[in-house]
Amino acid sequence: MNNSKGKGFLGLLILLFAVGLFGFLGYDTMDSIKLGLDLAGGVSITYQAVEANPSDEDMADTVYKLQQRVQNYSTEAEVYREGANRINIDIPGVSDANAILQDLGKPGSLMFIDETGQVILTGDQVATAKVGQTEQNGIRSYVVSLTFTPEGTTSFAEATTKNVGKQIAIIYDGEVKSSPVVREAITGGQCQIDGMEGYEEANNLASTIRIGSLSLELEELRSNVVGAKLGEEAISTSLKAGVIGFAVVAVFMAVAYLVPGVAAVLALALYVGLILILLAAFEVTLTLPGIAGIILSVGMAVDANVIIFTRIKEELGHGKVVKSAIKTGFSKALSAIVDGNVTTLIAAAVLYFRGSGTVKGFATTLAIGIILSMFTALFVTRFALYSLFSLGLEDPKFYGVKKDGKQIHFLGKRRFCFAVSIVMIVVGWGAMLLNNSQTGKALNYGMDFTGGTSTNVTFNENLSLEDISSRVVPVVSQITGDADVQTQKVEGTNEVIIKTKTLSVDQRQALSNAMVESFGVEAEKITAESISAAVSKEMKQDAVAAVVIATVLMLLYIWFRFKDIRFATSAILALVHDVLVVLTFYAVAKWSVGSTFIACMLTIVGYSINATIVIFDRIRENLAARTPKQQLDDLVDQSITQTFTRSINTSLTTFIMVFVLFIMGVSSIREFALPLMAGIVCGTYSSVCVTGALWYVMTSAKGKKDLGGKAENP
Question: Fewer C-beta within 10 Å: the chain N or C terminus?
Answer without folding.
Answer: N
